[in-house]
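Progress narrative, work stream C.
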Amino acid sequence: MSTNHTYDAIIVGGGHNGLAAAAYLSRAGRKVLLLEKLDHAGGAAVSAQAFDGVGARLSRYSYLVSLLPQQVIDDLDLRITLARRRYSSYTPDPAAPGRALLVDNEDASSTAASFAAVGASEDEFRSFNDFYASCGKLTQALWPTMTTPLPTRSAARQLTLEAGATDAWEAMIERPIGEAITGALKHDLVRGVVLTDALIGTFARADDADLQQNICFLYHLIGGGTGDWDVPVGGMGAVSGELERSAREAGATILVSAEVTSVQPGGVVKYRHDGADHTAAAPWVLSNVAPVVLDRLRAAAAPAAPPHATRNPNHLREGAQVKVNLLLKRLPRLLDGSVSPEAAFGGTFHINETWSQLDGAYLSAAAGNVPEPLPCEIYCHSLTDPSILSPELQAAGAQTLTVFGLHVPDRLINAENNEDRRAELQAAVLRSLNSVLAEPVEELLLTDQDGRPCIETKTTLDIERAVGMPRGNIFHGGLDWPFVDDGAPLDTPAQRWGVATDDPQLLLCGSGARRGGAVSAIGGHNAARAVLESEQQPRD
């Protein structure tokens, strides 16, 4: 075992949040060691050549950016370009093949006509806009607090009341979001378009009492205060790559293929690298792995009485999605001849996601079945940013599709059935997609260098094995409100920044931190701020 090396901070896990923390601390003059188990940094925020011999680098696990604050981009001098999409969503009507709702951010009259085309009234269109305008008052008030010490519930509520968001607070924070959606909207398809933001990655119903769906809804709308989800030019790897560059240029030591084997009290971390065991120590250890994974690493150091970093059972919540990446010769033709494929796939393409279909899919999955039809959302990166494709693929008109299948909880997957379930889920996704197309999507798949179709499917277990997200949960567990209950302890910087564990030297800096989740770097920013604030305080 190598000799100990002393650092100011050790970061366990090299996902984008860990890289952000490393960059902030290194820029503040701290000596930082970051340890990443995989052979590359970036975690789930990476681009990959998913298909052998094919010049396409896909954002394999995470793909859009909403929650990354401009403050972080500016602080760390990140050279990142985020492209805005014209279209918000396209949703075929399963009750009338060939009819669909297209929400055009730049043409309100066109969107109104699309509402009418699916049988939604002018009042429904106005209510849809009013609903989001009301939510926007709340998100604009709360967004600036994401990179400040945590507000209390009362303080957060006061901010929103001052912004004229009294109704939105009640709808989004106090009561199940389903009540607000059904109270404001009448049309089954329109309700479903709104509800999807409450369900992505979260296995829940619209009226669940624990309000996980509300928290998910808030996080999908809060980014930038507007809820816009932008395309990272160059793919998600461009985002994590810039964070890594910023950290390295500031002096951080980043070791990949370095597997942490235990996290011990006193800031001691053991890891294996280059075939040898090593030990490092620091006053601060920041965990960018999920809290459940951190518990395992701590248990390895103290098996008799393992401590617990998890703050609540929320961190044990399962993931609930299947991810499918496809590379096509061209965009498929639609059953709806009134809309071009470029417009339909230019935003989020909803399939079989009416209100009633989403609820039926939840009930089917809760009973142990793969939903049929499977609710799906599709995103086409290459339409907005063709740079992820080789010049040859661009010239040939190739396009990428990323499909996110909802209501596929991890409880349906295990080590024994994973391969069969993966095939079953891929077939369900293709059936769902084909139900709104004028041609089978399978006929449009490109092939790799060995003649295999360019399609890959990732179950929750595949995601856990690949990037360490327990039970495939893309948020590292259940999400928390971006505020704390009145009376919650806020005595230490770690508590105030929402990154505390039961060990004062051990902080959460990833998606498992309060205000974590999605590609935001907020967890890394807040943990670094807690460290620097702690060091400025007088010692007893």
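Work stream C, second folded protein:
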Amino acid sequence: MKIIINVLLLLATTYTFCQNTLSGIVIDNQTQEPIIYATIYLADLEKGTATDENGKFSFSAIPAGTHKLVVSYVGYETFSIPVEVPNQNNLSIALRPTAIEMEEVIISTPFHKLQSENVMKVEQKKVTELKTNGAITLADGIKDIPGVASVTTGLGIGKPVIRGLSSNRVLVYTQGVRLENQQFGGEHGLGLNDAGVESVEVIKGPASLLYGSDAIGGVLYLNPEKFAQPNTVAADFNGNYFSNTQGYSTNAGYKSSGEHFKFLFRGSLTEHADYNTDEYRVTNSRFREQDFKAGIGYQSTQLKTELRYNVNHSKLGLPEEIGIQSTNKAPMLPYQDLTNHILSSKSTVYFENSRLDLNLGLIYNDRKEFEEEHHHDDHDDDHEDEDPHEEEHDEHEMEAPSLHMKLKTFNYDAKYHLPKLGKFETIVGLQGMHQTNSNYGEEELIPDATTNDIGILATSHIHLKALDIQLGARYDNRNIDVNNQFSKDFNSFNGALGFKTNLFKRVTARLNFASGFRAPNLAELTSDGVHHGSNRYEIGNANLNNEQNFQTDLALEFKNEHIEIFANGFYNAISDYIYLAPDGTVIEDTPVYHYVQENANLYGGEFGFHLHPHPLDWLHFESSFETVTGKQDNGDYLPLIPANSLNNTVRIEFANTTQQNNSPSFHIKNNYAFIKLQSTFKQNNISDFETATDGYNLLSVGFGATLTLRNNNEIDFSISGTNLTNTTYINHLSRLKSDGIYNMGRNFSFGLSYRI
């Protein structure tokens, strides 16, 4: 990787550019007064600054070309404008007051625009917001995003579901590269920690044009924390305590940036005991997670490059039945022992009016699973606060795991942004992956195999006076070689077309058409054995075809100074949908399931509004409803479809005011409080081998604030309570529902963050 950086540095020095500057002033468009400490951000350069006491800002060493400039400040509408360097300078930017939240630049789409400018509908949430709402893990937090749910195995294991599709139908990107960690398994979680993740973006619907195979259901894109601004140093410590599990999560980070070089690192530790319900603790839902992230970057006029590394090690208990009631945190048998290594390189070389983006990734997933042994079955379930397995834990770790797989992946993503031609912005790209799977355990769930992907794409954004158009096409080839026994090739050509326009003065419409595909995974092609996590004998089918889909997506938005209303509807037709079906026979006392194919359709949407009545801009009322239905052409319902849900939130925010405390040593800002009612309805539309689930209501409250100390250090604190009524319920996407095991009961979260 050092060689790659040196090559890029050498390449960049072969071009001669002037040391361009960009400066300007930011003012209030009503009072014409300068706005102090407004954030100024050059999106494609990932370079930012703030206005001074006169509202002025300045950048140096800016490459020639067109760059997206984004200006934001709390209480004002986010402003975005393309600037041509060096032709434009000494800008005067007027911001309009608004109660609408500040917009962020969307990174998961290739043109790096604000969501209000995007042709595709993309949801974005800050991780800090998810945590202040009481989320315990990243997989738990993403459920707050409209259209997103999570398939869970207890508390520690969760995987994303986007509009009813999950597993290998949803891609996860982290540090700018594709995450590969055996997504085919229902009990295989993300393997990622939220420490050092700044925000989450969700593309709902087929994103094969941008990401290739396996993005048929959408993309979960995790944005890592930014480096410090030039010539600054920052450090922070964060801690959270959770009453239900008597657990905690802590992390600490440090980052420093000079004029050209920058670095950061962050370490975290998380531990939880078995989660509690109104009636019992869920035995062996405990888990422990360690995470370390580091990054180094270099930026000059011609080149921007960064290298990031993340290692995540977790031990996750696998709940099976209600037994020992304990608050110990060391997982018992059975449990997973997982280690994920992610090494990524993200570079941009700037030419005159064009640029080349190159992302490279090395992902190493080491998965071990230790199973329950027969002599451990006859323990005393009524024994309190003892864990007979705990004394034998080290002994079991010396034994060979029953399942041990190593998945090694190298992926690459190169995109060239052509010079802007009139109203056309165009990108051409090349993406690919080389992957090997190897087995080392006593059992073999999927065989040794090698997978190679390659895809080429082209996409354009066309800016017309009253209409924005985005279109593109892509061709992919995937080859899967299974232990030199057989080799399969899968090919697909896909396209996308989208429109954004203002139907009326305050009504924005987005209409998108997109096709996507997914090649069968190794489990679907080659399984021949008992899948213990699902209690099924699974038999693969080497003759499976690509899944191919076509989705239509319509999004309408209305905004004024008092209210925002949105309505998103979709229809997703999937040809050759792959699923498991029983054949009525039994092998090894386990029912036999075959992988088969049938056409399927999913449809539904998200609808809601956000009321912020002027002049009571501190008062927010938000309501949203989401629904999805999935059916095969034969009339059967698809499995793992989330139940319909309705969310109502009342939120109070005083982000625009500063309350002076009697003590001169600190003052309080960014006060907030909320109360939320989540109503989940019955799910009776189930597949043949699912059970129905009842509806339930969950009540949550929370509050928090930021304390700014005399030395400008800041302390954030938050307190939230979820499921305050201690309702006993089972979520339809819980893998423990077949055993009648409840989801988590009442929980109080206490968070503290100290920033230097």
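The helical segments are 2-13, 127-132, 138-141, 208-211, 388-391, 393-398, 522-526. No further action is required on this item.
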